[in-house]
Amino acid sequence: MMNIEESVLLAIIQENSQLPEKEQQRYQQLWRKCEDETLSKDELTEYQALLSRLEARNPKRIEALIALAQSRGKR
Q1: C-alpha span between 45 and 40 (Å, rounded)
Q2: pLDDT confidence of residue 72
Q3: N or C: which end of the chain has fewer CB within 10 A?
Protein backbone atom coordinates (compact mmCIF):
# COMPACT_ATOMS: atom_id res chain seq x y z
CA MET A 1 0.00 0.00 0.00
CA MET A 2 1.30 3.42 -0.95
CA ASN A 3 1.62 6.17 1.64
CA ILE A 4 1.23 9.92 1.06
CA GLU A 5 4.99 10.49 0.80
CA GLU A 6 5.26 7.87 -1.96
CA SER A 7 2.30 9.41 -3.79
CA VAL A 8 3.98 12.82 -3.72
CA LEU A 9 7.28 11.37 -4.92
CA LEU A 10 5.56 9.50 -7.76
CA ALA A 11 3.82 12.72 -8.81
CA ILE A 12 7.17 14.55 -8.85
CA ILE A 13 8.71 11.75 -10.93
CA GLN A 14 5.81 11.83 -13.40
CA GLU A 15 5.80 15.63 -13.66
CA ASN A 16 9.53 15.81 -14.33
CA SER A 17 9.67 12.91 -16.77
CA GLN A 18 8.44 15.04 -19.63
CA LEU A 19 7.67 18.59 -20.66
CA PRO A 20 4.23 20.19 -20.40
CA GLU A 21 1.87 18.55 -22.92
CA LYS A 22 2.16 20.96 -25.88
CA GLU A 23 5.93 21.25 -25.53
CA GLN A 24 6.23 17.46 -25.21
CA GLN A 25 4.22 16.97 -28.39
CA ARG A 26 6.41 19.46 -30.24
CA TYR A 27 9.56 17.84 -28.84
CA GLN A 28 8.39 14.45 -30.11
CA GLN A 29 7.63 15.89 -33.56
CA LEU A 30 11.06 17.45 -33.75
CA TRP A 31 12.71 14.30 -32.36
CA ARG A 32 11.18 12.25 -35.18
CA LYS A 33 12.40 14.78 -37.73
CA CYS A 34 15.83 14.70 -36.12
CA GLU A 35 15.89 10.91 -36.39
CA ASP A 36 14.90 11.23 -40.06
CA GLU A 37 17.55 13.95 -40.51
CA THR A 38 14.96 16.37 -41.91
CA LEU A 39 15.21 19.20 -39.35
CA SER A 40 15.67 22.72 -40.64
CA LYS A 41 18.20 24.95 -38.90
CA ASP A 42 15.42 26.76 -36.99
CA GLU A 43 13.83 23.46 -35.99
CA LEU A 44 17.18 22.19 -34.77
CA THR A 45 17.53 25.27 -32.57
CA GLU A 46 13.99 24.74 -31.22
CA TYR A 47 14.67 21.03 -30.66
CA GLN A 48 17.87 21.77 -28.76
CA ALA A 49 16.06 24.31 -26.55
CA LEU A 50 13.31 21.81 -25.73
CA LEU A 51 15.89 19.12 -25.06
CA SER A 52 17.70 21.45 -22.65
CA ARG A 53 14.42 22.15 -20.84
CA LEU A 54 13.74 18.43 -20.57
CA GLU A 55 17.23 17.71 -19.28
CA ALA A 56 16.88 20.50 -16.71
CA ARG A 57 13.98 18.54 -15.19
CA ASN A 58 16.10 15.44 -14.60
CA PRO A 59 17.66 16.42 -11.25
CA LYS A 60 14.24 16.75 -9.57
CA ARG A 61 13.11 13.47 -11.11
CA ILE A 62 16.27 11.66 -10.01
CA GLU A 63 16.07 13.09 -6.48
CA ALA A 64 12.49 11.84 -6.20
CA LEU A 65 13.49 8.42 -7.56
CA ILE A 66 16.25 8.14 -4.96
CA ALA A 67 13.93 9.24 -2.15
CA LEU A 68 11.31 6.72 -3.31
CA ALA A 69 13.86 3.91 -3.43
CA GLN A 70 15.13 4.82 0.03
CA SER A 71 11.58 4.98 1.36
CA ARG A 72 10.76 1.56 -0.03
CA GLY A 73 14.02 0.14 1.26
CA LYS A 74 13.13 1.11 4.83
CA ARG A 75 10.05 -1.10 4.95
Answers
A1: 9
A2: 86
A3: N
